[in-house]
Amino acid sequence: QVHLVEAGGGLVQAGGSLRLSCADSGRTSRNYAVGWFRQAPGKEREFVATISWRGTTTDYLDSVKGRFTISRDNAKNTVYLQMNNLKPEDTARYYCAANFRGVASTLPSNYDYWGQGTQVTVSS
After folding, report:
1. Among 22, 99, 103, 122, which residue carries the largest CB count within 10 Å?
2. Which of 84, 122, 110, 106 has its CA nearest to residue 36?
3. 60-83 burial by CB neighbour count: b if 16+ within 10 A, else e?
């Protein structure tokens, strides 16, 4: 069983930084890839970043490339999303998700477990 808990969201001014974390307290022995998604009010859930089990493969939404970095520490069962140079359009609730295929994926339908999300608000 995977139990994902996101943390690190908050209110920040444009140009600022936040680091989100996604911790798995379920301690599953299975390998899984992780994705970060976001959803703003009135909009559909959107892919942000993904990382494979070994961390060798990553992918990003075009609009966050060069600003966001996904990483993981499997010894700590935690995945991070470092977000720099934040913009008002990054405002959303951010969710992490796990997929037991182990392969980084941009598709929400490929993910098996989801966290409850953490709110990120960027003021202009």
Report:
1. 22
2. 106
3. bbeebeeebbbebeeeebbbbbeb
Q: Is 64 helix (H, G, I), strand (E, B) or coil?
A: helix
Nearest alpha carbon to residue 49 among 24, 25, 82, 16: 82
CA separation for the pair 56, 22 (Å, rounded): 18
Report the SS3 class of residue 101.
coil
Cα 90 to Cα 103: distance, rounded to the nearest angstrom? 25
In tens digits, what is the pLDDT along the chain, a chain of 124 residues?
A: 789 999 999 999 999 999 999 999 886 767 899 999 999 999 999 999 999 999 999 999 999 999 999 999 999 999 999 999 999 999 999 999 999 887 899 999 999 999 999 999 999 9
User: How far apart are alpha carbons 58 and 40 in whole angstroms?
Assistant: 23
